[in-house]
C-alpha cells in the first residue's frame, strides 16, 4: 500500500490549500521543449473493466508530469502502457515522434529510450550493484564493458551510493536499492523516465532519499512521468499535475493551481482526504 503524506491543512475539505512553490521549482512551460510523449485516444480493458478511457496526453521534453489519483484509477496502467509493458486496445502512443512498436527489436530499441523505475526494485539478486547497472548498456546498447563500468560508477556516485558498487542487492536498504534502480535506468541514457509509485514499497524514513534523487533529476531537465502519492514531490518538482479517476484524466493543472484551487469535485474530494489525514 502507498504511504500517504499526513500534511495538515486548516482549509475546508472542498478546497485544500498549499503554500506557493519553492524558489527552486522547475521552469515555466514556455521554456520546455517540443512534445516527447504523445497519447491519443488510448483505451485499455482488463476483461470487462475499462481501465483507460480515451486518454489524450502530451508530455513535452524536459517536463515533469506527476500523475495522482485514487487506487484503481488507471495511473500505473497508463505508466506501463507508455513502454508497452501493457498493451492497449485502441489509440496511439508515440515517443519522440515514433509510434510505439508492437514487438521485436524495434520495441526493444524504443524501450531503451524509456527508463522505468518500479515499486519493487526488480534488481538481479545474484548480481552485484555494479553488474546490475552495467548489464543494460553492455547487452542492449553494446557499450564496451570498461566504459559501462566507468559510467555506472559515476551514476552510483550521482545517486549517493558509489561506495556500494560491490555489494549484492540484499545487503542494501530499500531506499538504496531504489536508487540503484534509478541509476540502472539512467545508464541507458533514456529520453524519458517513468516512475511507477517508486516510494510505495519503502519505509517512511527511506522515502526522502529517493525523492531527493528524483528532484535533482527534475532540476537537471530530465523528462519524467511520475505516478505517486507524494504530494510534496508534486508541489516541488512537477510542471503539471494530472489527476485520474475511473480510468479518465479528470483534471490537469500546474501544481500550485491544482492544490490551491482544484476545479473538479472528484479532485476536491481526493485532496481533502489525502491532505488532512
From TrEMBL:
Q: Where is this region: Disordered?
A: 1-36
Question: Is Secreted found in the keyword set?
Answer: no
Compartment(s) where it occurs, according to its Swiss-Prot or TrEMBL record: Cell membrane
Ion transport among keywords: no
- GO terms assigned for molecular function: ATP binding
Q: Where is the composition biased (Low complexity)?
A: 1-17
Segments passing through the bilayer: none
CDD domains assigned = ABC_HisP_GlnQ (cd03262)
Name recorded for this polypeptide: Amino acid ABC transporter ATP-binding protein
What family name appears in the similarity comment?
Belongs to the ABC transporter superfamily.
The record places domain ABC transporter at 37-271
Query: What InterPro entries does the database record attribute to this sequence?
Result: AAA+_ATPase, ABC_ATPase_HisP-typ, ABC_transporter-like_ATP-bd, ABC_transporter-like_CS, MetN_ABC_transporter-like, P-loop_NTPase
Stored SMART domains: AAA
